[in-house]
Amino acid sequence: MTDTSTRPGASSDASAVPEVELRGIVKRFPGVLACDHVDLAVATGEVHALMGENGAGKSTLMSVLYGLQRPDDGQVLLRGTAHRFTSPLQAIDAGLGMVHQGFKLFPSLSVTENVVYGSEPLRRGFVDRATARARVAELVERHGLQVPPDARVGDLPVGVQQRVEILKLLYRDARVLILDEPTAVLTPAEADRLLDVVRGLAAADRTVLLVTHKLHEVMAVSDHVTVLRDGRVTARLTTADTDPAAIAAAMTGREIDLDKRHPAGRPADEVLAVENLTVAAAQRDAKPLVDGVSLRVRAGEIVGVAGVAGNGQSELVEALAGLRPAAEGRVVVAGTEVASGGKGVSVARRRAAGLAYVPEDRGEVGAARTAPLADNLAMGFHRRAPIAGRGGLLRRSAIREHAARVVERFGVKAASGAVPIGTLSGGNQQKAILGREITHDAPLLVVEQPTRGVDIGSIENIHARLVEYRDAGHGILLVSAELSEILALSDRVLVMYEGRVVADLPRAEADSASVGLAMAGGSPPRADAPGRHARTASVPRQLGHEASSAPGAADGVVAPGSDPSAHSASSDAETRRPTERDADHD
User: Which residues of 360-391 are buried (b: 16+ CB within 10 A; e: fewer)?
Assistant: First the structure.
């Protein structure tokens, strides 16, 4: 085990009592040792990152701390006092708070009503609304959260809803805040805003436990890092003394090439043709969400789609998959016309034509959460032998065998194929759904955010499987918010801005400078333009930062030079609701 710090904690006083201390925590589930004698100590005012691959035990450990799970052995201490929580209510009373991936908010109520719910200030036996609002407004001001106290929560972007969850904890005077994958559903600009909030909380002597897969966030905001692998601590690191490669190696047990760019593909026949596709906004007078898009994808190539969230990428792929109606345009999949002139065939017929689809919202769209993993992996195969037997009856043995092959090939961690897929970590759900769709062997794979909420080792595996699928003669349309992912995998890069494709860059011309400029509404420089590569370092690896740095940019992320009112329809469609309602269980 690596240890580059004499003791965890932001304080330099070695005698200081930790704000949080876990000693020898053991937690078992049937067939799984989730936490194997885990020790953890976190100082007051520290941001402590907890990292590990999917299923490493991170969320289980935090569930023990928060009273959601009872440890089989070990102790939980807060400021030196031992506690044995049997419910989250006891943990809250002791000064703990937790923000889950799936928000616990009432969309129809105001921010203030959500924050004070269950702890409302009373006056003469009635809720004192004025006092409640004043308290919430004071917390917003003190911590710089920029949340409107009177707004209806359902009308707020996801990033602001995240801050409402944090407000709930601060209202209950939580000294320790547990944030479980807090940026998994946020746009890059929203994620930056949240990291600023985390820094402010630590400066106010709050202690933050940050469960995340994102190495750049850990390096940007944390003081110390604890890494888990297979339920055990493999590294305790001081962030200032380490680097992303060392953290990745501690997570996976091997060296990871964080900047690998895969070899180019060999394009062949066309598997997707889109002509003048238009998706109308819900508001009659608003600009279309997708505005006359035309594109081509050939077998043997990966076409990446980049853009600031809310510029039509999600609506485009939903229209291609048949989940959203198109007002105009023509779509041809592997030679079969599936949409034309505002009319289109069903999702089932599109899949039969040769379209496989990995949605952004794996929990609500990509899987039946309460159904067994094996049954989810068999979806779409129920009319094929060997899963379909005589008379159309399903063969359970064939379903189990099929599931076992997918699980092994894609590294899905599950006790068995009988467990509900919704009980798996978010990353393992993602690998399962991607494995199912790739196994269909369709000519065209449309995939959104393939590595969202996935650990670094699994990202490497997913990227390898996508390249392998391309090299086997299939076409892939890839939508990702990770610029590094787009550049690592794509043979061509399309950039969407305000519902249109504003750039189509071949692999040789696609870099962070050219893509970033097009994302902001500018024209990409020519490949031979002088000084082009000199600007590369100023463009962040994740999409959205360029726009977020512009004057007046907000959580909806309006690019420089755009009309915010015209942009709002597409932006709101992207950001108003969380897309990952599934908690990342470990």
Answer: bbbbebbbebeebbbbbbbebbeeeeebbeee
Strand 302-306 relative to strand 2-3: parallel, antiparallel, unpaired?
unpaired
Question: Dihedrals φ, ψ of 273, to 5°?
Answer: -130, 120
The rounded distance, in Å, linking the Cα atoms of 188 and 290 is 21
Residue 285 CB coordination number (10 Å): 6
In contact, 252 and 53? CB cutoff 8 Å: yes
pLDDT in tens, 376-400: 999 988 888 899 888 888 999 999 9
303-322 pLDDT tens trace: 999 988 789 999 999 999 99
Nearest by Cα to 100 from 63, 57, 151, 149? 63
The answer to whether 323 touches 316, Cβ cutoff 8 Å, is no
Q: In what order do the strands lie in the sheet with 475-479?
A: 355-358, 444-448, 475-479, 302-306, 492-497, 500-506
Least confident interval from 109-113, 183-187, 422-426, 474-478: 183-187
Instruction: Give me the domains of the chain, ranges plus CATH numbers.
Output: 2-95+175-252 (3.40.50.300), 105-174 (no CATH), 270-370+420-575 (3.40.50.300)
Enter the pTM of the model: 0.70
Provide mean pLDDT across the span 526-549.
Answer: 38
Q: How many CB atoms lie within 10 A of CB 144?
A: 11
Q: How far apart are CA 223 and CA 21, in angstroms?
A: 16
State how far the alpha carbon of 159 is from the alpha carbons of 152, 163, 254, 368, 481, in Å.
14, 7, 34, 26, 15
Is the peptide bond between 386 and the residue preceding it cis, with omega within 30 degrees of 0? yes
Highest mean pLDDT among 340-344, 558-562, 563-567: 340-344
The values of phi and psi at residue 154, to 5°, are -65, -15
Which structure tokens are listed for 279?
């998706």
Burial of 530 (0-12, 13-18, 19+ CB in 10 A): exposed
- CA 268 to CA 494: how far, in whole Å? 19
CA 203/CA 143 separation, integer angstroms: 10
Enter the tokens of residue 31: 């067939």
